[in-house]
Amino acid sequence: MSKILHCDFEVFGIVQGVSFRMFTEKQANKLGVRGWCMNTRDDTVKGEIQAPPEAFNEMKIWLEKTGSPTSRIDKAVFGEVKEMEDFTFDKFSIRY
């Protein structure tokens, strides 16, 4: 098994009420990324992602540049990237 990368993220802009979490979950499942995301009280979306390097980097770019069709991403902030031996999540989920 190749190494797993992990980091926290927070996306700023118009990311609530635009199906951002649903599209994030769909994209994560497509790439095989695990973790979670949720809306915050500050009108941002935050979460964690875990994946092998290629999928991890693709997901980061998606969170930074793409998002859901009607969202507007002003910036995406990523925490320190850590290497892990194995996944700590079994899938990607939306938290409430």
Feature tags:
alpha+beta, 96 residues, 6-stranded mixed beta sheet, 2 helices
Description:
A hairpin with a 5-residue loop joins strand 2 (34-39) and strand 3. It contains 2 helices and 6 strands, in the order E-H-E-E-H-E-E-E. Strands 1, 2, 3, 4, 5 and 6 form a 6-stranded mixed sheet that branches. It has helices spanning 20-31, 53-66, and strands at 4-14, 34-39, 45-51, 72-78, 82-84, 92-94. The mean pLDDT is 97. The radius of gyration is 12 Å and the shape is globular. Helix 1 (20-31) packs antiparallel against helix 2. Helices cover 27% and strands 39% of the residues. The N and C termini lie far apart (32 Å). By secondary structure, it is α+β, with helices and mostly antiparallel strands.
